[in-house]
Amino acid sequence: MIGLVKGMAVTLKGLVSPKVTYKYPDVPLDMPDRFRGIQYFDPEKCIVCNACVRICPTDCITLSGKPNPDPGKKGKVIATYEINFELCMLCDLCTEVCPTEAVVMTNNFELTAYSRDELYKDMDWLSKNDTKIRSENNVAAVMKGGRKDAE
């Protein structure tokens, strides 16, 4: 009998306490600054050094380059850059080794798909994923002293 009264007390306390649910699809969630979300890729900054490909523990990054068509410049130009998010564990290693910060993490986490084929993201898709770039990986935001999304 005492257990029943204690259980009812907990239930009644829960009924009058403030609700802590989020209206997620309608109201976007604010993720912490150190949240590791989907990568953003800037093809203009990439020097095709393959550092991100070599350090990836799951081998989900594919990168290829071609010789620079401009005869006065050395090096390579990016041809393809793809990430298989079916394998990617968002470990942030690819962004840490990138010397030009062509790959940075964002706070974007919405990556739902009906098919596994939709989880292969190419250079065009990754370069459009720039809405919530993390301030720790964005040199311009750090130089200004604030977050990019706070402007």
Walk me through the topology.
Layout (H helix, E strand, L loop, with lengths): L1 H15 L22 E3 L9 H5 L5 E7 L8 E9 L8 H5 L5 E3 L14 E2 L1 H5 L11 H6 L7
Antiparallel strand pairs: 1-4, 2-3, 3-5
Structural domains: how many: 1
Going across the biggest sheet, name each strand in turn. Answer: 2-3-5
Q: Please give the radius of gyration in angstroms.
A: 22 Å
- According to DSSP, the number of beta strands is 5
Share of β-strand residues: 15-25%
CATH fold title: Alpha-Beta Plaits
- What's the overall average pLDDT, rounded? 84
Low-confidence region ranges: 138-151
Distance between the amino and carboxyl termini: 59 Å
Structural class by SSE content:
alpha+beta
Main features:
151 residues; alpha+beta; Alpha-Beta Plaits; three-stranded antiparallel sheet; two-stranded antiparallel sheet; 5 strands; disordered C terminus
Structure description:
The protein is an alpha+beta fold and 151 residues long. It has one domain (32-150): Alpha-Beta Plaits, CATH 3.30.70.3270. It is 24% helix and 16% strand. The protein has 5 helices and 5 strands. It has helices at 2-16, 51-55, 93-97, 123-127, 139-144, and strands spanning 39-41, 61-67, 76-84, 103-105, 120-121. Strands 2-3-5 form a 3-stranded antiparallel beta sheet. The radius of gyration is 22 Å and the shape is elongated. Residues 138-151 have low confidence and may be disordered.
